[in-house]
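User: Can you model how iron/sulfur cluster sits in this protein?
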Amino acid sequence: MPDGGPGVSVYLHYPYCKSKCTYCSFTKFLVPADGIQHSRLEDALLTDLEASLSLHVDDLVPAGSDDHSAAQDAIVPPGEPLRRRIHSVYFGGGTPSLARPEMVARVLQRVQDLGMTPSQLEVTLEANPTSVEASKLRAFKAAGINRLSLGVQSLDPDALRFLGRDHSAKEALEAIETALDVFDNVSLDFIWGRPGQTVAAWERELQQVTALGASHLSLYQLTVERGTPLFKQVQKHPQLMPGEDEIADLFEATRHVASLGGYEQYEVSSFYGVESSTFKMFSNGASLDSLLAPKSDELRELERCGLLTVEMDAEGIITAVLLAIAGKDFVLTASDDTSARSIVVMKRGEDKSVELTKHSLMLYSGESGDTVQFAEYIQRNVRLYGIRHSIELSPNAVASFTRREMAESLRSRNPYHVNVLIAGVSPKTGVPELYWIDYISNMCKLNFAAHGYASYFCLSTMDRYWRDDLTVEEAKALMRKCLEELRTRFVGNLPNFFVKVVDANGIHTTEL
Ligand SMILES: C[S@@+](CC[C@H](N)C(=O)[O-])C[C@H]1O[C@@H](n2cnc3c(N)ncnc32)[C@H](O)[C@@H]1O
Ligand code: SF4
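Assistant: Here's the modeled complex, given as C-alpha cells:
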C-alpha cells in the first residue's frame, strides 16, 4: 500500500496462478489441486487491508467531510471519527482474474467503509487473457472494476511458448476484444527483448497491437530475474538474450511504432493512447496539440507557458533566466549565473545546469534547496537506468521521466518548486530535442524556449529569427540578441551567463 502523497493507493496482491511463466519472479503459488479456498483467502485479504490502512494515520480526514481533497491539517473536533483518503485500488498478482468477482465487491465495500474515495475511484484488475477469465469480465465490471490490465506479453505463438504462457495468441486476441467491449479503460502488457526477436518482427507485432485501440500499453523489456527458470537457462546459454545493440534497436523501434500508432510515452515502459477517451478525460478536454505545442502555433503556446510560470510566486523561479534554442543538429542553452533570494543577490558563478546523459542537459530554476535536490535526483536515476540497461536514454525519455517525477512530487506534501528545460540530441539519430517543463508538470516539446520573466523579453525575438537550419554561430547571434534585449529592458542586473552546446559529440561550454 504505497503512500503517494495525500491519500493512499491500495494494492491487493492475489497470489495464485494456473501455471508459472518462465521469466516471472512475482510472489505466486500454483492453484492447489483441490482449488482455491476463496472465502478464507478473501477473509485474509480483508484483515490485511484493515491492518494496513490502520497504519496510515497521516492520511486521516474527518469522516463528516464530503471532500476527498479536504485539507489534511484541518482542525478536527474531539471525538469526530476519521477516515483515510484513498485515491485508487489495484488488484495485482499473481492472477487476480482467478478470483471471484464477489471478492472485488467485498473489498470495495470495505474500502468505502474505511476510507474516503473520490467520485471517480480508479479500480484496476490484472487479468490473464484466457477464455475462462474473459468470460468473467462483465461480472468484474459489475463488482466495481473500471480499468483492466491484460497481460498479453506477445502475439507470437513461439514467444508465448518460450515465456511459458498458458494461452494462445488467438485466445489472447479474443480476450482483448472482450475486454475492449466491456471496459472503456484497458491496458495491455507486452514483453520485448525476447531471444531471437528481430526488429522487423517486433515492429509487425507492435503494429498489430497498436491497431487494437487499447487506452494504455505497458511495453516491458524482458528482464532476466534471479531464481526464475529463464535465469537458469541464460546462465547455461548466455548468448540466448539479445545484446546491447539489439536491445537499443528494439527500444527505439518500440517508441517509434508506438508513436506512429498514436501512443505517447510518459515513462520508460508506459504509453497512453492519445485518442482514447480516458486520455481525453485526463487532459480535461484539451487537445493533444495544445499539450504538445504544435509548431504552427508555437508562440501562443510559449506565451501560455510563460504566463503559467510567472503565476508562481517562489524564490528564484521567475527572476532566473533559462534560455535554449534548437538548431540544425544541436541545442544552444544559456542560464544566468546569479543566485538570488527574493531581490537580493547572494552570489555569482552558479551553474544552473546538470548533465543527465552524455547528450542531455537539464537547466533548472526555482527554490534553492529544491533545484539542487531535484536535479541530483533526476541525474542519479537517469544514470542508474543507463548503467542497469547499458543504454543511454534519449532526451525524450529523460524529459518524460522528469515530467512524471514532477507530477508525482506535485501530489506529495512537499512538492518541488522547480522549472526545467531539457536540451539534448538523440544519441541514435543526432536530431536535436528541446523540452520545456514547469513546476506543475506541464511539458512542451519546442524549438526555442525560456523560463521566468526572460520569456517576456526573449520569446518574440526567438520567434522572429528562429529557423530549423540554424548553425551554431547563427544560434549564438540569436542568443546574443535575446540577452541584449534582457539587458536593455529587464530591471534585474544579470551580467553573466553559462552558455552550452549539446550536439552529437556531447555537451560543451562555449562563449557567445
Ligand atoms: C505481475 S505480472 C501479472 C500479470 C498477470 N498475471 C499476467 O501474467 O498477465 C505484471 C506484468 O509484469 C510483466 N513482467 C513480469 N515479469 C517480467 C519480466 N521478468 N520481464 C519483463 N516483464 C515482466 C508482464 O508483462 C506482466 O504482465
Ligand atoms: S507473469 Fe503472471 S501468470 Fe505468469 S507467473 Fe507471473 S503472475 Fe503468474
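A couple of observations from the model: The first helix runs from residue 38 to 54. The pocket of iron/sulfur cluster (ligand 2) is lined by residues 17, 20-21, 24, 26, 28, 93-95, 128, 151 (CB under 6 Å).
User: Helpful, thanks.
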